[in-house]
Amino acid sequence: MEKYFDTRLNQDFRKGASDIWRLVAADLLKKIPAKCDRVLDLGAGYGDFINQVNAPEKWAADLWPGLERNITNDVRAVIGDITTPIDTLPQNHFDLCFMSNVLEHFTIDDAQKILDHTTSYLKKDGYIALLQPNFKYCSKVYYDDYTHKTIFTAEGLCNFLLDNDYEILSCQPRYLPYSFKSRLPRPLWAVKLYLQSPWKPLAAQMLILARKNEKSVYAE
């Protein structure tokens, strides 16, 4: 895993990432029709999202031990396998669970396990936000990342959530470029305009926002 981060997520790839993620986090939280005081970032990696979130209680979980040295002091780090129940994560607790570029790295069976456990961490009417590649718009480069295991489109990912009794609040099939290696505008004012614009050249990552309801219960 350390070598994966060195090759796929090296420093050139991450140049300016924190500034961009600050704008992405602010834009995403504006889309949620409730205040999110307790936020969990699953598969957090470098913690780029959770580090930028303005919330009283912030958690990040990942199997990669490097998470602990990359998060800010106000984030609680949990090192563990997100396909299994993580005892240190409180149940029925979080207002929002965010995952960026996570589910496509797992088989569909493991993706189901991750969603089941996520449901258990969310409080009633909690929200889930999924940001990840939309295969419909990036099929030619999708498997350049050799760790990709499952294909998701916006329609497929929404149906996955619906089948688990989530309510889809919004679906943006094109939200961000496939990766920060793409030509995402680097001046921050341009990034802000890009996020607000309905026209998104090169966008191949989708953003799905859904809400847990009473039927979305975790079953052993």
Task: Characterize the biggest β-sheet.
Answer: 7 strands, mixed
State the CATH class. Alpha Beta
By secondary-structure content and strand pairing, the structural class works out as alpha/beta
Tell me the span between the first and last alpha carbons: 29 Å
At CATH's second level, what is the architecture? 3-Layer(aba) Sandwich
With helices defined by DSSP (H or I, 4 residues minimum), what is the helix count? 8
CATH topology: Rossmann fold
| Weakly predicted, low-confidence segments | none
Helix content: 25-40%
CATH homology-level superfamily: Vaccinia Virus protein VP39
The overall strand count is: 7
Outline type: globular
- Based on CA atoms alone, the radius of gyration comes out at 16 Å
* Average pLDDT taken over every residue: 89
Elements, N to C (H/E)? HHHEHEEEHEHHEHE
Tell me what portion of residues adopts beta-strand conformation.
Answer: 25-35%
Q: How many domains make up the coordinates?
A: 1
Describe the structure.
α4 (48-52) links the parallel β1 (38-42) and β2 (57-62). This protein has a seven-stranded mixed beta sheet with strand order 3-2-1-4-5-7-6. The radius of gyration is 16 Å and the shape is globular. The mean pLDDT is 89. It is built from eight helices and seven strands. The protein is α/β, with parallel strands linked by helices. The chain has one domain (2-212): Rossmann fold, CATH 3.40.50. The protein is 30% helix and 26% strand. It has helices at 2-8, 11-14, 17-30, 48-52, 108-121, 135-138, 154-163, 188-196; strands at 38-42, 57-62, 75-79, 94-100, 122-133, 166-177, 203-212. The two termini are 29 Å apart. α3 packs parallel to α8.
